[in-house]
Structures are given as C-alpha cells and as structure tokens.
Amino acid sequence: MRVVVRSRSGGAPRCAAVLDVGRERRVGEHAGSGAWLVLAPVGRARSYAGCVKGFASDNYSGAHPQVLAAVAAANDLHAVAYGADPWTARAEQLLREHFGGQARPYLVWNGTGANVTILRAMCRPWHAVLCAQSAHINADEGGAPEFLVGCKLIDLPTPDGKLTPELVERAVVRVGDEHAVQPRVVSITQSTELGTVYRPEEVRALAELAHRHSMYLHVDGARLANAAAALELPLRAFTTDVGVDAVSFGGTKNGLLYGEAVVLLAPELAEGFAWVRKQSMQLASKGRYLGAQFTALLEGDLWLRSAAHANAMAQLLAAAVTGLAGVRVTQRVQANVVFAVLNPAVSARLQRDWPFYL
Ligand SMILES: Cc1ncc(COP(=O)(O)O)c(C=O)c1O
User: Domain range holding 338?
Assistant: First the structure.
C-alpha cells in the first residue's frame, strides 16, 4: 500500500481515503471539495458519491460483512429469548476460551452499559472509582456512572491517559474515615482514550496495588482488541493473567453492529450480576443477535485482523502527517487513534469534509 498526499491544485477536486478503523479494509472515494490530504492504496479507490469519511470515531465505520452475515443466518425460525439461545451459549464459550475458564461473560448493548453494570457490581454508595481524567466513564458517559452506580468518580490527570501505581497510591486516602468516600475501584482503559497501550506488567502493578488496598481493577476494554493487536498478545495475557477483576470487552468498535461483553473475572462479582444487568436495561430480549455477532467475531481471528488493520491505518495516517508544516502528533500511536495539534484554520477547512474531534 502506498500513501499518496496530494493537494487539490491542479487535480480534480476529489479525494480518497482509507482509515476505516474497525473494518478489515474499505476504501472510499469522496467527491466533495476542500480535502487535500489523501491516503489511498493507489489504483484501488472506489466511488461512493456523497459518503463522509469520518475520522472522529471508530463508530463511524459500518459493521463487518461477516458480522452482518452471522446476524442474517441467526434470523431463521424462533429461538429462546433473553440469551438462552445457542448463539449466546457459543459466544460465552468463546469468551471463556479467550479470557480463561473462570470468566463469567454477560452480553450487553453498549459500552456505557458494560462499564456501569460492572461498577454497580463492584461498588456500594459510599465507594469511589479512581480513573484517569480522560477516561470515557469520566469524560464521555454523560454522568451515567455517577447517576446509575451512585458513586463518586475521582479523576486523576495523566499526560498520556494511563494511570500509574504512584498516581493511584496518592489518591487512596482517608481509608476508614466515615466522612470521606472510600476508594473501591481502579478503572483503566485499554487501549486508552489517547491511543496509548498498557503493557501487561503495568496492568499487573495496578492490580497488585488495588488488591493491596482491597480494591478492584476494572478495564474499560472498548478497544481491547486493538491493544491485543498492538501488544501481539492473547487477550488473557494482559487481563486475567495479571489480576484484572472485570473487563468491558468492546465489540462495536471491532466490527459489530452493536454489542459489548461484560467479562467478570473475580468470581464474587457474578453473584446477582444477572439482576444488575436486567435492572440496568442491558439484557437484550432477542439475545441471539448479540450472540451471533460475538461468535462471528471470536470464532476465528476476525477480531484480531480487524483490530490489527485499524492500528495499521492509524500508523499510516500518523506517518503521513508527521513532518507536515503545522502538524504535531502529540501521543505515541500505539493503537488506532492519532492525536495531533493542527493549525485552527487548517482544522476548520479539513472538518468541512473530514469530521474529527477537536
Ligand atoms: C473508551 C470507551 N469506553 C466505552 C465506550 C462505549 O461507549 P458506548 O456507550 O457509546 O457504546 C467508548 C465509546 O466511544 C469508548 O471510547
């Protein structure tokens, strides 16, 4: 794959792009005007008149065709509702294969739901959750964890989205003081909201610290597959095997239509979890479609291929813009996210055709 950077001058006002993170490969050609940064496998672009290539979120991408096919295949005849169907059983079995025999998987609708239900299982109303300031639970869930878990989030500033034992240790204060909330959970995101990745030994150090203080370690793994691809490790090597207590395992950003999995690793968290999920409105009635999607993702290596492709596209973008005048990439590009500082005038112009977050 060659990277081409073209300016509009002299050429037709058309642009093509690859960067369909979360998809195996999809190339779009956009007939809008104004965009001039072109990343394209030469000679392969196809035309989708009027399509928007979104850089803002991996959720701008569609679902993988294999996932859609699995949903269609599961659509035959009737199946027992509420997850007591063979597709869900198979998906749960696959999740146990990936995370280990003690894993207790529960399929849910979305990532906020996965995070909230796990935190509900871990916390009582006087507990607190320590997380990075940039954590999705803190910055992007509209207060759902505070509202539905009923707990305080203590958000810690980090330069790269990663908590460290030092940062956490400093925040574990006033333990046993009835006037203060009691730290109960350390929540990290893997890969982080800033596109960085924890090494297994970094996760282990956080788990050991949390457990020393009778706390749980939760991993928001909306992009856990991207971390696995970046680390070139199986999922359990940087979760189950290093002491993580529960994982929100992302499906949507990895090619599903919708759907995430709660994976409980500390056995006591499973007690009553079925009711936590139901009360949190995360139990799907036609559960077979969730089961079928996860089965398509996890039965072979679709989850890993898609994540590795997304990571590679981020590397491609970062390499293409690094060194351009007025562009500074601010974080290590380890997963499928690129953070860069751009000249505001350039941002405004690019955003007309290429949505991305500011
Ligand atoms: C780190 C992280 N966690 C969780 C989520 C889940 O969000 P949603 O509730 O939209 O599925 C997202 C989505 O952007 C995310 O980036």
Answer: 2-62+309-350
